[in-house]
Design a protein that fits this description.
Chain A is built from nine helices and no strands.
Chain lengths: 209, 209, 209, 209
DNA sequence: GATGAATGAGGATTCATTCAT
DNA sequence: CATGAATGAATCCTCATTCAT
């Protein structure tokens, strides 16, 4: 269980330094995407980044720090997408939920392997302040969205919807699915069902129970 | 791309050998539960099992084979629980689904850390015949259950419900939740919503959208 | 550097025991032939011989003892072949030499891989009495043969001819040669040249130096 | 059937690195000379070289790569010696052959144990391009030398002479012989005999068959 | 600041050999 | 006597990290 510092060792001030950091992150992301965590070795990252191993350690105190930074970046993007989805459009719960689910899908969609690898690594990572804050904010957005409607426990619902979405999307992506509209529709159906906002209107045949 | 043999090296014939194998599996499960995959070293497993490293390799050709065996055991239990849930009780889709969801919860509930670790490891494991068969059978049970009712694509629904359940349960367990009845109710709500079998009856207030 | 006993642990008296020993030797020879020394593990030998590892150690105190026994067997056969070659036919040096060379070729010819492996292993083996004796006898035969003719140092010549033959044959076999008559002719030419018994008679064109 | 890369992992750029590599090769040669291939363990080599095991693996990807490098060095020297022997002096076949045989003797003479160990190891080694090239060139020199004279199959003769020389020298060295002039004379006699260039002139008494 | 050589603890796996049953 | 389960020293090799230049 590591307890070492997990944030970048020093914030790059000069342009060259910023480029170095970017190269390292890019290299790490590439390796993570194509080879998984097991392939992520500091020496390989440095090599792919075209940087000496010494320089890598100039900016990242440990290997975990690299992973943590990539994870933060991913979460930042996710938060940003969710924020846009929550604000834009009408405040109709159904359509807002749908937009947010689409945003979550997009999150796993751009670089599925990378997202998978980072999330798997998350449990080994000591959580820094920013990561915690991001998680809280993401959760807060869902909660806020759901709070505009009468729900007994909006934060519980937020938690469950995030989990449900994450579970379905992850598995679908893993299974090679690529029809995002179809996937979004299915996830939405489950989510609205959870919220007791059932719909018989979708392109779904009638049922005889 | 894994390719090595993954089944146990030889089947223990004598009682002593069976005890050895059991001790190894138990030790591995314990380590996996408390330290995760990274803590699972063959030497540690052997030590905890009170067995020499040589004995471990008599029965498991590689470290992965141990993981594979534990995974098989987990799936066997899961399959068994699902079968019971599918058969027992009326063929009412709602109650059958509820029972199956409860069975799935139980699957993650007895040893959550172990299940998490094993599932995370699964993608690195070369799947043997039995593992494949178990996966197929588990999937088939869901499909069969859903097929008794008019659904456009039962196998798709089976896939989605399993993913949805898995996602919600995993996260809840991870977050420290222990009220399984409550969890089961929430998952079921999402599942029935997905299946267009909405309910206003649960201990849930009515909503005005 | 082993100094342990190298002769069989006990001489098999009963028929069953003799069969066991034979099976072990056969298995070891097979493995040596097809996989080389590195493939020769005691457990594998026992398995191939259809014998328990415990039984193997009943008859051979160490792995080296098995190799030593195979080597002795090989040398016994070589000695026997050489004896026949030395005795049979006229005592004409040229033809005797030819016959003995043919015998040596045969020695490497029946199971080239085995012979190679055993000879390579020889240097690691503590020499037992019988092996020493066999070597002496083989050398003595060459010496005796050459002694019937006026040579300054028959034992030196014996040594050299054996080495020359061994070197040429080994390499030729290794290179995949299979025309033994041709090989024998070439070796003989070198041998007779060494003995100053030159021949312009072979199917060899005339030379202009 | 070997297939792994066998050339050094990276070429040392700094002086310190070059010293490390040299130390490793020296240590390996020493161990090989005094203990044989079985004594050659990577940890021992590193220890004797006064270098960490990690450093060893910076420059040699596998243990075999070390052997391969030593073998290459040996062959390079052999080739060089042969080239000098072939060029210098008159083009008289007899004296050229003698010089080349002396060169070959020198090859086994400087570090007999090392040469023996390396040659024994050769069959287990995946041959890289340079090794192949060296072998070809060595063989070509013999062939070229013999081609200047009317011989039915110069490349066959080259092969045989190399084998004959190798066999006699190896055995003589092994037997503790140190009088190289005498050895060279005997080998030459066999070689010239093979080539049908017999001599009664050496310090050898006349024979009556 | 940058470089890359060096480090060495740690981890997977093998195999000759012993010994209780 | 036979069996085969158990042993553990020994071996190859990796990779995060440090530090002299």
């Amino acid at each position: 269980m590591p307890s070492a510092p997990i944030s970048p060792r020093k914030t790059p001030r000069q342009a060259r330094a910023r480029a170095t950091v970017a190269a390292i992150e890019e290299a790490a992301a590439h390796i993570l995407t194509h080879g998984g965590v097991d392939a992520l070795t500091t020496n390989l990252v440095a090599a792919r980044a075209g940087v000496s191993i010494g320089s890598l350690y100039q900016y990242f105190p440990t290997k975990e720090a690299i992973l943590a930074e990539l994870l933060r970046k991913l979460r930042r993007e996710h938060l940003h997408d969710l924020e846009r989805a929550a604000q834009q459009g009408g405040d109709d719960l159904r359509s807002t939920t749908t937009r947010m689910i689409r945003a979550s899908i997009a999150h796993h969609t751009e670089a599925p392997e990378l997202a998978r690898a980072l999330e798997a690594a998350e449990s080994h990572l000591p959580l820094d302040a920013e990561s915690e804050a991001l998680k809280t904010q993401i959760s807060a957005i869902w909660t806020a969205t759901l709070s505009t409607h009468a729900l007994p426990d909006p934060s519980q619902a937020a938690f469950d919807l995030a989990a449900l979405t994450h579970g379905m999307v992850t598995r679908a992506v893993q299974a090679g699915e690529r029809d995002w509209d179809n996937l979004a529709a299915r996830v939405t159906r489950a989510a609205l069902g959870y919220l007791h906002l059932c719909t018989q209107d979708d392109h779904q045949p009638t049922q005889q129970p």
